[in-house]
Structures are given as C-alpha cells and as structure tokens.
Queue: 2 jobs
Job 1
Amino acid sequence: MSEQRTIRLTVNGASFEREVEPRRLLADFLREDLGLTGTHIGCEHGVCGACTIILDGDSARSCLTLAVQADGAQVQTVEGLGTVDALHPLQRAFREHHALQCGFCTPGMLMAALDLLRKHPSPTEREIREGLSGNLCRCTGYEHIVRAVRTAAAAGETVGAETETASAAPPREAGAGAQSRGSARE
Amino acid sequence: MKSSAPITNSTITDRPGLDPGASVGLALAHDSAARHVQGSAAYVDDLPEPAGTLHVAPGSAGAARGPIRSMDLDAVRASPGVAAVLTAADIPGENDCSPAFGDDPILAAGEILFHGQVVFAVVAATRDAARRAARRARIEVAARPPRVTVDDGLADGAEVMPPYEFRRGAPEAAIAAAPHRLDGRVRIGGQEHFYLEGQAALAVPGEDDEMRVHSSTQHPSEVQHLVARMLGAPDAAVVCECRRMGGGFGGKESQAAQWACLAALAARVTGRPAKVRLDRDDDMAMTGKRHDFRVDWRCGFDGGGVLTGVDADLDARCGCSADLSPGVNDRAMFHADNAYYYPAARIRSRRVRTDTVSNTAFRGFGGPQGMLVAERMMDAAAITLGLDPLRVRKRNLYGPGRDVTPYGMRVGEHVVPRLVRELERTSGYAARRRAIARFNARGGTLRRGIALTPVKFGISFTLRELNQAGALVHVFTDGSVQVNHGGTEMGQGLHVKVAQVVAEEFGIGVDQVRITATRTDKVPNAPPTAASSGSDLNGMAAHRAARTIRRRLAALAARLFQVREAEVGFAGGRVRVGAETISFGELARLAFTERVSLSSTGYYATPKVSWDRDTASGRPFLYFAGGAACSEVAVDTETGEMRVERVDVLHDAGRSLNPAIDMGQIEGGFVQGMGWLTTEELVFDETGRLLTHAPSTYKIPTCSDVPADFRVALFEPGRNREPTIHRSKAVGEPPLMLALSVFSAITHALASLSPGRVPPLDAPATPEAILRAADAMRAEA
Ligand code: FES
Ligand code: FES
C-alpha cells in the first residue's frame, strides 16, 4: 500500500487533520473518514454532479478531487448548509417547492445552486438552467428544481449575505424552527 | 360537477373542497424532504458499516458468449487486501437470481452469456482493493460470434419465450379491403435507467444460517427468497430491508437481486458483513435496460383516417435470459392500441434471445413501445391523407360502441376523449398548428411541428398473483402511529401517500404517522413496487389495517361512554364520542387499559382482474389511467438539432391522494420519456459490448434540455370509477408515454419537407436520426 499523507482542512467550519492515501478521493474521504454521507456518489466520472461540494468558494466534484488536493482548503458540504432548526433558504425552497423525489441528486444540486446564487444573486431563468445543467436529476424533470432556485434567489439577501460565513451555520431565522416542525406539511 | 381552478404545476394546491383536518388530498412534501435537503436521508451505502465490513467487486471476462476455457484467479487472490474470491463453486444453494425462469446465474457457470456478465467476485478490505484485484483475472473464453441485435436473433431463430398473439376479427381481410393501406417498419431504442443511486446491497450474517440484507430493491420479498435459495437456507432465515432507493424506474425490480446475492454470499463465505456498490460503468454494462424493438406494422383505414384493421409484429431484444421479458412483451401488446379502437387486429410478439445483457422492467414495462406503434399509424394515416393528425386521432379513440380492445377487454369509461378535447382548447392547438403551417410553408431549414397525443394505460399487474398487498399498522399509547407495508420508496412518494391514508382513517395529522423501512419480516410475500400499483395496493392494505383498529376503538369508546358506535367520530386529532371529545392518544391509552389490541395487519387483493394468458381472455386491468400532451418542437433539418419549445399536459390522477406528488410523477415521467425518445441512445458493438456505458456517452436530459415552457394540469373532475383507494388513479408510469407527443411533433416537422410522405423516423430521434429522416424526405421531395 502507498504511504499515507497528512492533510489539514476545514469542513463545514470545523478543522480536521487526517492521514490519507494519496489516491483517496475527496468524496470517499468525506463520506467514510468524516462520516458526511450527504455527499452522494452517482457516477464517479464527474458527470452527474451528485458529489458536488464547495471547495474554497467554488463548486467542485468531489469524485474527481483527491483528498490531498483539499489540503489546507475550506470545504462545504450539504451538512454545512443549514441546521435542522434553521434550514438554508435553498433547502427550504427545495422542500417547499417539491424539488426532489428520490433525493439522491439533492445535496449536489443544492451545492451547485449555492455556487450559482453566490456568483449570480439574481440569475435569469436561463442562468439557472445553465448553472444547474451539470447536475443530473433522473426523477423530477427539473421544473420544480428551477422553481425552487428562483424562489430562493428572490428571497434575496440571505443567500448572498451568507457567502462570507460560508462554513458557519446560517443565522437562525424567525419561523424556521416552526417550519421544520410544521411537519403536518411533510 | 363543481368546478374550481385546476391544480397546475405553477400553482400546486391541496385538492379543492377538502374537509378541514383532511389528510388525503393535501399537497404535502415528500416525507423525507427535510432529510433529503440536509443530506441525512440514508441510502444503503450511507448506513453505518458494522465492524469488519468487507467490500465486494464483481469481475467479468471481457468477452462475449462462449464457454469458459480457463480461469486463472491467482493474481486476484494475491492482491493486497483480498479476503476471498468467489466463483460459482462457492454457492451453497442455487446459482440463480432470476425472477421466475431459473436462467440468470449469479456467477457464470462454465459459460459466458453476454459481455459484462459477472464471472467472479472479489471480497476485500476496501472497495478500492476489491476493484483493483478484480482487474487481475485471466479468463479465456472460446468466444463465438454473438447475436447482438433483434435481426441477429431472429436470423438464428433464437427466442427466450415462445411467440404470443392476440387476434380479433379478420385483420388481413379488413386491411385488404380497406380504401387505404399503409405499412412500415419502425425501430425503437432501449433505455438505461440511470437511477442516480447505483445498485447496492449490504449483507450482515446472523446466528446459524440467518442473513439480513439491506438492498436498494423494488422487490424485497424476491431478494429475500433468492438470497435464501442461493444460501440453501429457508426463506424464514433471511430478512431483506429497504428504507429507500435513489431511484428505481424498474431497474431494481428483478435486477437488484444479483448484487444482494453476491453480498450475502460474501458474508456467508467470510462470516463478516459484506457490501456491494456497483461502479457506474459496471452498473450500466451488467444490468438490463428497456427493451428495444423492431416493429413491422400494416393497417387499413378509410378516407377519414379511421382504422379498419391493424396487423403488427412486435419483435423485442430480450437479451440472454427471460427475466421479466414475458410480462414486458405482453404489456407492449396490451398497449399496441394505445387509446384507439382497432375493429380487427392481430398483434404478435416475438421475444428474441440475444447474447447481450438481459433486458428488464423500465417504467411503462413495454407499454411505451407498443403505444409508439399506434401513434406512428395515426401520423402515417393523417400525413398520407393530408389531414390533421389530431383529427385522425380523435376519430379513432375508443368511445361508446367502439370499446373492445384487441385482447377482448371492454374500455369501461371514456375519459381520454374529454382530456383530448380539453387540452386541444387550453393548449391553443388549432391556432398554433395554423401558425406552424404558415411558418413551414415559407420553406427553409428550420421546421416546426406540433402534436397532441393521448395516453391510456392499463393498471394492474398482468400476472394476477402480484395484485395483492399487505400492511401492518401499530397505534401506540401516546397516539402515535407506525405504518409498514410491502411497497418500497424510490422517490415516487408512496410512503407519504400511504401515511396520508392512515392519518385520514384515524383523523390525525400526517405528522403523527411514522413511516418505517420496508422489511420482509414485517410484511411478507409482497409483490414488487411496480406497474404503477404501489399506492393502489399498499394504500388499500394500510387503509384496511387502520380501519380494523379504528373499528375496535370506536366499539370501545361506544361501550365506555355508552353511546352508539355511529356517534363516534375521528377528526382533527380528536375523537368525538357523543357529546364529549377526547384525544386520539387518550383513546389509545384507554384501549390498552381495557385490553383492546392496537395493532393490525391489512390485506388487499385487487378485485375483478381475471386475465388468463393461455386462452388470451378475461380482464387484465382493473382500470385505465390516462392523460394527454401537446408538444411543439423546432427542428433544424440541416443539423438534426431539435428543441422542445412548449409542452402542455392534462393528466387524470383520479381523486389525487397528493397533488404535489402526482405532479412530480407527471413532470418527471414526461422528461424521462422525452429522454428515451430523443437523446438516450444505447450503442452496442458487434461483440455485444455496451459502448455507451458511462453518463459521458449516454445523454440523459439535463436542466437546459427540458422544455422551458412546461404547463401541467391535473384533470379536475378526475375520479376513479373503480373503488380504488379514495378513488385515486395510479400515476407512476402513464406520464412517461405523454412524451410520445414530442416524437409525433418531430414527425410533423419533418413531414413538411415532403408533404404526403411519412418521415422514416426511428426512435430515439437523436440529431443523427432526425438528419437521416430529413435527408430521406428531401431525396424523395
Ligand atoms: S459522482 Fe461525482 S459527478 Fe457523479
Ligand atoms: S430526485 Fe431523484 S435524481 Fe433527482
């Protein structure tokens, strides 16, 4: 077996130091070593987008990235997007607008949408569609995914303002707790 | 009938007119939605691995059909991290994972049946180690030239099952006597499922011969039975569990079993938990797809385009084994009429054996291919006569007095003509068609097309024994409820629908109803979650279980409060007992104190279905689901590029259990159907090796390929005439076939190149296929 390398990185605001094999994929590192299984593996070819994460402020495919490449980096995964009591506006929009079915594409889709909205806070319909076109969804037909992103964008500042503190839990929002417990609607 | 604003995809609302406190009919989010957006909904590969879990990778020979001459696995065994290498000789019981016919070896036994077949499996400490080791095998195969296409198989007379035929009247004579006759051949491509979550299974050995298998499967009962048979253990020693799948679409109906069997075999041989998660390329190469067809059709019709006789030969590539091909091909035959009356018909099917991966269930289960033939005949008749294809379609629809299908079942209600009329109006079809005619008359390379096509889809398994379901409902003394049923969740929203049904019965909120994983030790002997039947079957079974408990509770309350049972009502989380009310939880606690059972099973068997395949008689379906779609396309006839400009859909989900979930099925089904018919092309080389074995070479629709103007409405007066669960209609598969409107719209655009001539367009209508058809049209023009 090849020798191990030590990497240090920040994932969702927390610092980690781990030994990894040089050829270990970031996706496997996140899922297996850190137990962050919200990042899904759909194709391992960089095509489906299910494994999309944010790496130093840009979306990246964790199935094409080696863990050692993330040494010293800031990584954000779906687990760092919101908290149970305070979902991120994109998460809320995805849930409320039926932007998911099997949910397997959802974490990657959310991270791609996050990247899009940070770079284009008020995207056109076309920009949304192009921005998400690297992420496959086999279930929904995309209509409600686009709708959810549009709604989250219209909700405005929250997404942008949160850019700077990407890795921290977003601020609590009034009513968010009530919404997530409002499970009569779930 | 009361009318209100229809539920559309831009305004998804609860079903109008619901009682306050109702659960059924609410547009609730998927029950796992909150978990999905947080990434905390676990799929098989996300489950915490028990200590010592090993990983399994399949290995193949890299050759097509032929006997295995030699197999050298020494280098595989010597690879770092390898704990065991499994071959057919390691299987203690039966080496078979077929759904019925005993012809799908789990591991190749002496002979390779198709390129990519699993010959051995490596069990290693890590998945990476297993996959690396698997590449070190040296297997020699005395390869024989494989039969790859339908034509190859037919030339060899190779079939997985005997041919089958429906016949009514004298179609040959009717066609010969018809004022107009047409015939043609159309090739219809297959389709890769591309469920986002690949095939996966985790097996954990228990005491003695026990085995627990977590499988991403639409059919846990079958996985349980096949694992048991493979291990040589009784069914009772094996439990299969599935909390959810990341998509199934039919691809995990029968073909999840092989991976579960391999995991279980690895666990048995090593005594340790073992997990399989297929690499995407392996998944695409090793698992079956939608059947591709070659269809030869002949029909006769009158001057108005009304059919007098139809004669069709449906030849399907089944691959190397029967798998679910008998049912798939029967369903193709059952749907070769789509929504049209054939006064005389002969529908014949051949189930062609090829040396390729065994094709399997895929949303629609043969129905889409059959229906494409019906739509091709409609387009062909209309184009030949110079008529609007919609007019020809409407004239041919089933209606009173023209209501018997080629297989003898009467079409009891005629919703489709209403859907078609209404959509014709709301989509502005007539004006748009005129505008398109003017546009195309100007000539030029860009052509437009529009088509409005209906869908009629038979609901029930055509294999009668699968039309049954069980459920298990527990009420706890705090008033919370657990539901279990035999159906599986693959994203289609089955669990939330069933929870709504149970909540409605107890008059409690859906948040009080907890859905649990599908497990064969809770509800045994369940059919697959397939044939769109999930909520029809399991909703009804759960309803009955809940009804049993509710009756007990009502009787108890009546006795304790000395009122009549009719004076006990369940609504809004409260139980009204005469003039008093208590909470549902309080009544549950009383039931415990008074020693009344708070748990019940429920069982449902679909009534009325009576199909007898041997005599081709009886009633295969309880009812038909339906819809209509109008699609407009723009086609560049010089490059073959095509864009879907606008889609309007009107779909009948009966009295929808959950309009949000149903809307998702319609949109998603349409887009998946559009992918099948336009961009998704499977290419095999002459050895039967799949060349399009990765998403980089197989194009499924992305966000920027789907129609930007996509308007979907639920048919507001929809109501099932049959007593299905709350009069809803199944909605899993039928919307896929709405995409036939896209195929017909492309046909319309191409037809403008040479009026009167039928474009020789095959499916999928990829740019290359469109260009070929356009060139052929221009050559004739
Ligand atoms: S798993 Fe990384 S792009 Fe598909
Ligand atoms: S919700 Fe299933 S793949 Fe997108």
Job 2
Amino acid sequence: MSVRSFATLFRPSQFFSIRGGVHPEGRKSLSSDCPIEDMPIPTLIRVPLQQHIGAEAEPVVKRDDVVLKGQLIGKARGPVSANIHAPTSGRVIAVGHFAAPHPSGLPIPTITIRTDGADSWGPRLGRLRPENASPEEIAAKVAEAGIVGMGGATFPSAVKLNLRGKYALHTLVINGAECEPYLTCDDRLMRERAEEIVDGIGIIARALGVTQIVVAIESNKPQAIAAMQRFDRALGIPLRVQVVPTQYPMGSEKHLVKILTGRETPARALTADLGVVVHNAGTAHAVHLAVRYGEPLISRVVTVSGRGVRRPANVRVLIGTPVAEVLAHCGGLTEDPERLLLGGPMMGQPIQNTRVPVVKGTSGILALTRAETPDLDTMPCIRCGRCAQACPVGLTPFEMNARIQADDLDGAGRIGLLDCITCGCCSFTCPSNIPLVQTIHFAKGKLAEQEGRKHQQEETRRLAAARKAREEAAAEAKRQAMAKRKAEMEAKKQREAAAAAATPQPAQHGEPLQ
Amino acid sequence: MIEAAVSMSALGLGLGLLLGVAARRFHVETPPVVDAIDAILPGTNCGACGYPGCHGLAEAMAEGSAPVTACTPGGRDVALQLATIVDTGSDGAVAGMAETEPTVAFIFEDHCTGCMKCFKRCPTDAIIGANRQIHSVVVDACIGCDACIEVCPTEAIVKRVKPKSIKNWYWDKPQPAFGSGNGGYAA
Ligand code: SF4
Ligand code: SF4
C-alpha cells in the first residue's frame, strides 16, 4: 500500500459519477418515512436450505422435532455455504421441498415449521468481546450465525471476512447506497440503528484488519447520512461517511469502489485485489447482533412497497415468512399487480406464487401497478446507442442482443456477455423497449446450463470408467482366486502323491485303524 | 498327476505367448480420428446407439457407416462437436437435429420388485437399491441410455424428461413481437 494510492483514495475530483448508469425515479418516499415495524409471528414458516450462494445446507432436524428460536436446523456444507437457524420456536412438520422464491417457482429443499407462538429462545451462540477477539474468532462467529450478504447477493459473509490472509486489505467500504428505486430498508436501518450498525462495522473492520472505513450513502438519504455522520470511529478504527451521487447502479460493489478509490476492479477479479472489501449496512447490523448478543441471522428488514400495496412499510420479517402474510400485514393489495417482485424493480425477480417464503436476501417485496411498469410495446432497434451509453460496464447490449437472438452465444460471450452485471440499465433506457437484459438473462442461464451439462458429462464418464475398473478388478480377482484354488489343488495333489510315493508302508500300518 | 499339471501349464503358457506375439504382430493402429471421436462420445458404453460401446460407434462413425447423430444420450451438443471432425455427408443432419431435452430413467415404485437387474446393468451406477428393495435413479448420474429399461422384467422403468431444477432453470428467450409490423424497416 503506497502513500500515493492512499492519497488517491478520496480525491474529490474523482468524485463524479460512474460511467453510464441511469437515473430511475426513486419512489422511495412511499416507504421512507415508515419506521421499521415487527410482524406478528406467522403460523407456518418455510425455511429453504439454500438461501445463499454456494452449497446447500444440510438439514439437521427431522419431522416432528421441536425446535427453539435460533436453533441450528441446517448445517453449512463445504467452504462456501451458510448455516440456517429456526426463526422462531415450533415443531418441524416437514423436511421436504417447497416452491422457491425464484421466478421459476421450482421446488427446493425446505424445512417447514409450525410455530407455537411462544417465540422461546434456545441457547444463544456464545458471545464474543470483539475488542479482544481474534479475527478468526470473529469470522467463525459470523459463520456460525449463518450471516450472508444482505444486499441481495447473499454471499456467505464469513468467507469474505477470511480474505485477510490472502490479500493486503486496507479499506472497508460499507455499502449503504441502496440505489434500487423503492427500497428503503437499509435507509431505515441506518436511521434507526446507526449505533448498532457502526458497532457491527467495527467488528467487521477488526476481522478484516483494515485501517480505515468508508460508509457510502447516496445523496438521497440525508437522514441516514446525518445519523451515520455522528460517528467517526468504529471500535477505534477511523470511519467516514461518503456521500455518493444518486445514480443507479451505485450499489454495485465494483462501481462503488471505483467511485471511492478511482480504481477499477479488473473483470472477474475481486475488489480485494485493490485492498478493498465491501459489506452491506444490513450485514453489519446482523454481525452486531451475532457477536454481541449471540443471535443468528433469523430475520431481516424488508421494504414492502409499490402502489399495489395498501400500506407500504418497512417490516422486520422472520426468515421463512410467506410473502402473502407480509403483504397481508401491510393491508394487502389494492389491485392485481402488474408485477410482483422480490428485490428492487431493476434487478428484482418476479414471483408467481405469494406463498413462497422471505429469505435472507429478500430486500423488498414490490407490487407494481400497471401505471408503474414501463410500456412493453417493443419496436425494432434504431441503433441509437443509448444502451451502450447507459451500460456501466461499457458493453454493447444491442450487439449482444442481436447475437443472442441469432443463437450465437459464443459470439455474445466474446463481446463481454459474462461481464454483464445484469443491472438492467440497458433495458431501462432503450427507447424501443427491447428486452435487452432479459435476453442476456436467458443467454447467461443457457450458458450456465450448458456448462453444467458438460460437467455432468465428465462426471458420468468418470462414473462409467470407475465402474469398468471395478468390474475388471472383480474379474481379475476372480481369475486370481481360480488360479490360486487350482494351484492349491495341484499342490495338495502333489503332496498326496509325494506322500504316497515316499511312505508306501504306513498305509499298510494304517490298516488296523479302519 | 504331475504330468497333467505340467502339460496344462505348458499349454497355457504356450497359448498365452502365442496370443501375445499375435497381438504384437497383427497390431492395427486405430486411426486417430477414431480416438478423437471416442474422446467426444460420452464414454459410458451404454449401448443406446446399437454398437458395442462408444469405441464401436467411433469406429463405425469414422468409416461413415454411422451418422454423427447416433449417440442419443450425447444429444445435439455431442453431434455438433462430432460434426466438426467427421464428414457428416448431408449437411442438414445436425442442423435438423432437434435440441432434445435430456432424459433420465424413472422407476415406478409400485412395479419395482427389487430384482437388481437394472442395478447391475447401469453403466454409470446411477441406480441405487438392494435385493428386494425398491430401486431408485440418481438423476444427476443418469444419462438416459435405456439400458435399464430393456432389462426390467416388470417394465417398471420409463424414460422421461429430466426434471428441471432451480440449478439448471433459465428464462425463455424473449421473442419481441414488434408493435407495428416490422417498424420502419420495410422502407
Ligand atoms: S444489464 Fe448488462 S449489458 Fe445491460 S447495462 Fe447492465 S451491465 Fe450493461
Ligand atoms: S437503446 Fe435500444 S434502440 Fe437504442 S441501440 Fe440500444 S437496443 Fe437499439
């Protein structure tokens, strides 16, 4: 870490905006003045075993088990995975499958709990005093609590805390940008729980061993900025609040780092390569709860908004609560929504079924009416180039779109398909309403599926080879056993013959025995 | 007795030697294209193509007696790869090959008697079960080759489209229907 790069860290002149990007209407006022409220405990809770990037958790309870709040019900499997805990007390009524909070609505392994309403805590995780805890202990605690990135990426946070050994880290960036329209959950959390968040930030910073902290908040959240500006240290580590322009996709990790440090993270590299680690403000709050109070990640703040919702709100929801119940808590729907989304309007995913559960990465539940959704009347591309201008990664979406439409996925890959962050700026800005990001979603999914199929083919080839080897080994063993038996038989016969030849007499002596 | 043993051993040794020498002497180089084809084929020797194992098909394909589309478990992807190294004869063969959905075997539990026949036959060990216990297919290991279907005495096994999971699901390709005919293109 040279002095120069430190100096460039906050050069105000760099402080403009990201390349491209768009300025969608914020519509945050729908819910930004609604304090975070708690929801009554629903009667049924469905906790998927995969709410994070990485391997699915392994269930450690079975049907009819009685579970207490905070009890481990799914155990992390492998290095990139996350623990799952019971959000409240009750009885496990199924360890099976249920529709995923995903556009496909396909079933995924899920634990269903009938709650008992008592909400009684089981034993909490052991508490830590972060002031004297080692970074490893903090990371282990965060892993134990099953904390994942709360901004929506749901990458297991403990893995990110353990980057310390591999990279020379110097800065922790706390992402409070919340650039998606409608969403206000991080905003509210920062306004109401600034002290706890700052404590969580300090804990994360200690685990990472960084020397400075930057909290990045978009300029459209003055109260959150004011709340966070009350602090200039987190557990003794200098902290500063940096106001960033209101622009989508400011909350994208690499773009945030670009704007704060002026340095661009190379394609397919990590921000850690630049010595910077980004965590979400909500994650910091979860870390605070886990380390100070031993509370695993069992609830999260969700923004329920859109004009299709009667009473927009910010609700602290237990993980596993059905979306329908959250909507009902907010007065239900005013009309049949045009789009029902989990997440923000730009990157959120539509769901078909409101019985799917809220998971660790659900930042918002949006019911958008016809008036709020863009016109879908598609026209041909007029080569205006606006999508390329808006693309924050510097791609040419219209060209990728053309190649994908012509089934040339490899061609699209050559012009950066895999670098696309699926932010949706291109579709948002296209005057012809061409479904650019939707086409890219298809292409990325298809490529991933092909990759998976190839991988599977290799695996089956390996299985077939293993079977052949086993069969050959078995045949060989059989042959050898036969040969051995034959040899033994022959040896025996030889012995008998030799014995008969050497001692012909004893046979006669033996006669009386008969 | 000893004579018998010695003579048998000598016979075995002699014949073995003869075989070894013959193998050396009459060794046939497999044409490199056969190996190349072999490398692309799934290598599971399932027999779905009707040839004795993947190598058999590779040879047939090299001499042009089998189409590149013969490997059904490999599907379109394998055919496309093969078409790059094998003369396909008619150009349309692969292009016309529909992108088939991968299929897997499915066992109707009601009909399964636990006879272990399919268990023994599966080239990728994708069937789990034990004697007199209902068998089941490990979907991720199954290549949809039909081998088990042929041997099942109670016809308890069928082939069906591989169930979609959240891991391999993806959006359909958007087919934008342009609002007003072909927009301004015609002019
Ligand atoms: S979705 Fe992809 S192509 Fe479109 S603007 Fe975002 S990064 Fe660029
Ligand atoms: S913004 Fe739309 S119309 Fe303009 S170049 Fe891109 S795809 Fe074409």
